[in-house]
Design goal:
- The chain is mainly α and 342 residues long.
- The chain has twelve helices and no strands.
- The radius of gyration is 21 Å and the shape is globular.
Length: 342
């Protein structure tokens, strides 16, 4: 990120940290309001969320936030208090770290790492540590079972998530997310260069695998076995209340926003638009373009969530190991062959 004034490194770090910290609740509020309370209400004919506050129920999410903040913070008597209290923060911090490498413009990136996508995939799995902490520290069999399911699900779906990205890395010749954006912007498809070469055209299979694995990472239907309300009450969140439960909610939707932004960067060119590629206008339009792409991808994620029934545990594991991983390996082989031949 470039600044007009030369500021000390610590001041720049504080500014970047503040920006990322603001993005997480903003992303959670946007996705929670647009999809959870509005799209789902329309799809399921639930009119309640349309009423509070007048115009299209705009106050519903704010009211829910106020309700959570006002609720009593309860810690079970048999719980490990320190681990119980730290678990939501660990999950939220893993979400925070995802935003560090996501570019929103040619100069709007907190840190443009050469191994940006490797870093993003690595820190995305840290949330499972917080989930295990929450389940173990709650001294509740339902919470523990939910956290163990989450760990098993992470192991199964982290691999196809990584393999789906390998095809993009092969095509772009870089693991930098900013470099992947430029590779799509500077490319051409079928001799047409004005739209660049968005990798969704050549990596549609990888995008499908990434979307399914991201859905599992978020533990959303049909991959919501760790929080299956009909079986586990609320899974690893059973004993949480008040603002700690709100942290888990923010982490889920903040991660959904971040994974949608990563998918938009990998497969749809991220902030790129063909009119301004450098300068202040590119930095102004970049977040808008990226935001529109994020909402489109998030729509697919939540559409699946509101449409399909839950997998059984054996079906969930089989889908990862017997379908997603073989398909992603075939995609990598095909990408490598086309890369060498063409």
């Amino acid at each position: 990120m470039m600044f007009a004034l030369e500021l000390p490194y610590w001041q720049i770090t504080v500014i970047k940290t503040a920006i990322v910290l603001m993005i997480i609740p903003a992303g959670a509020v946007i996705l929670g309001y647009v999809f959870l309370l509005k799209m789902m209400a329309h799809m399921q004919s639930r009119m309640g969320p349309m009423e509070p506050g007048g115009f299209h129920g705009w106050f519903q999410l704010i009211g829910d936030g106020i309700k959570f903040i006002q609720k009593e913070d309860i810690i079970p008597s048999d719980a490990d208090r320190r681990v119980f209290a730290l678990a939501p923060l660990v999950v939220l911090i893993s979400t925070f770290l995802l935003y560090v490498v996501v570019p929103a413009g040619p100069r709007l990136v907190v840190q443009d790492l050469d191994v940006g996508i490797f870093y993003a995939l690595a820190v995305s799995s840290l949330g499972a540590v917080g989930v295990l902490m929450a389940g173990w520290a709650s001294a509740n069999k339902y919470a523990l079972l939910g956290s163990l399911r989450a760990a098993g699900q992470l192991i199964a779906y982290e691999l196809p998530l990584i393999l789906a990205v390998v095809g993009v890395v092969i095509q772009a010749n870089t693991m930098s997310l900013q470099g992947i954006v430029h590779a799509q912007a500077d490319g051409a498809i079928f001799g047409i260069s004005w739209i660049g070469n968005p990798f969704i055209l050549t990596q549609i299979v990888g995008f499908g695998v990434f979307l399914a694995a991201a859905q599992a990472e978020l533990t959303q239907t049909p991959f919501d076995m760790p929080v299956a309300e009909s079986e586990l009450v609320a899974g690893f969140m059973t004993e949480y209340s008040g603002f700690r439960f709100l942290f888990f909610f923010m982490a889920e939707f903040g991660t959904a926003f971040a994974l949608s932004a990563i998918a938009a960067t990998l497969y749809f060119g991220g902030w790129y638009q063909p009119f301004f590629q450098t300068g202040i206008m590119a930095d102004v339009l970049g977040p808008v373009v990226l935001g529109i792409k994020v909402l489109l991808i998030a729509f697919l994620i939540f559409w699946i969530r509101f449409t399909f029934p839950r997998f059984r545990e054996d079906q969930l594991q089989a889908f990862a190991w017997k379908f997603l991983i073989p398909v992603s390996l075939v995609n990598i082989m095909a990408t490598a062959v086309f890369k060498v031949v063409f």
